[in-house]
Structure formats: C-alpha cells, structure tokens
Design a protein that fits this description.
Layout lengths: L2 H16 L44 H11 L1 H20 L5 H11 L22 H10 L6
Helix pairs in contact: 1-3, 1-4, 2-3, 3-4
Amino acid sequence: MSLKQEIFDKVVIHLLTQNARSTNETGGSCSYRSKDGKSCAVGCLIEDSEYSINMEDFTIRDPIMVAWGVSKFGKDDFEEIKPVLRFLQLIHDKIKVERWNGTLMQCANHFNLEKNVFQHFGDGIDPHPIRSITDFAGIIEIYGIYGK
C-alpha cells in the first residue's frame, strides 16, 4: 500500500468516526488539536510528542508544518503526499461535516486512491457532497491543489 493511500485511509477513518470538526475554544477556527480531544485531518497524524501549540493557525504549506512533515515522512515522501494532506485539511476546515463522506470519495477519485476504506461506514455515503463537480474543481483551483 502506498504512503498516500495509507494516510488517506487513516484520515478517512478518523474523520468519519469523529464526525465533528476540531475547533478552538470559541468554535470559530479549526485546530489541529482541540481541548475536547478532537483532531483535524492532519492533526490525527501528529503524534503527541510532535505536537506544538505553535502549529495552530498554520496550513500544511506553511514552514512550521512543512518542517513537521519532512521530519515525519522525509522530504520526497512529504512532497508527494502534501497535496493530499492539504485537500484533507480543506475538507475538514471548509466542508460541512454531513458532506464529508462524499467529498472524501471525490478526493479519492481526484488522487486515484482506492475507496475500500468507505466499506467500514455502510451505506451512509452522500453521493452529492458539494453542489457540483464545478464546485469541487473550484476548491482545487482556489486552494492550489494540483498534485495527483
């Protein structure tokens, strides 16, 4: 199994099991880790020993998070998985929780990943996660997620 697939599967299981955003105390901003024990799509990959409050408010493309990713996965592997991590981060931060199932499936399609992980969640997959594929393409364009 590729590292990209392994990470995707782990994050899907995490997000769909948690079924809630990880947010700061006011509920306004998404957080890698929240006080109530939740974590975001990337936060669930960060070990307790790796986590720092200084990571909050930064995306996977910012230097502090790039340093974490390179340290954890190695430079080449991190560069390969960074687009998937960014997309998963955006799903957590920008998509309504009730639309995560279908949007994660679209993410799998975009990055040519297997969707076997969804079998663990029964038939509750929303086939229309966002209004249209144009909206999905817009997310890719707006946030600069091009890698496959």
